[in-house]
Design goal:
Elements: H1 5-13, H2 17-20, H3 22-37, H4 44-50, H5 53-57, E1 71-77, E2 83-89, E3 101-106, E4 112-118, H6 120-123, E5 129-132, E6 136-139, H7 149-155
Antiparallel strand pairs: 1-2, 3-4, 5-6
Helix pairs in contact: 1-4
Length: about 160
């Protein structure tokens, strides 16, 4: 991890993922266990911070040494008319680069709303790229700028209901 990583992980403890997001916490613990079983040092705590990767990557703790790397996505149509979407994510941890899912989002009638290739769905609540044939293809857009870590952590605290 890069500069400021300890600050991010210490702040991440305050999110209390296990308490407020127990199902997600179990999934993340299982992923961490699987990584460990294959020799990758990826912890539950680290994966929990990845739930908020984009927000945390834009905080003031990141610094100039942050290795942002890049990702690429393409959309192509086969000769049979099938739409294919491919993507890579060249970021840390290295093991996460192999975590891609083909996602098909459906409504309550099983109609396909859109499809995508992603891995954020595994570690968060959304997708970073998606396509709906004949309509549009979208991919995330990295922004420049920085926010204070405390502000980001306040934004992602669970609401007391």
């Amino acid at each position: 991890m890069g500069q400021g990583s300890k600050d991010v992980l210490d702040a991440n403890d305050k999110i209390e993922v296990r308490e407020h997001f127990p199902e997600t916490a179990l999934e993340l613990q299982g992923i961490a266990n699987d990584f460990e079983g294959h020799g990758y040092p990826v912890t539950f705590q680290y994966l929990s911070a990845w739930l908020y990767f984009h927000e945390l990557a834009h905080t003031d703790v990141v610094g100039a040494g942050f290795d942002s790397r890049e990702c690429t996505g393409i959309v192509a149509e086969t000769t049979r008319g099938n739409l294919v979407q491919l993507a890579n994510m060249d970021q840390s941890p290295l093991a996460a680069r192999n975590l891609t899912l083909r996602i098909r989002v459906i409504d309550n009638t099983s109609a396909v709303l859109f499809e995508g290739v992603d891995w954020y769905t595994l570690l968060s609540t959304g997708v970073s790229r998606a396509v709906k044939q004949g309509v549009a293809s979208v991919q995330e857009n990295w922004r420049s700028g920085s926010r204070k870590l405390e502000d980001v952590m306040t934004d992602i605290q669970p609401l007391d209901m």
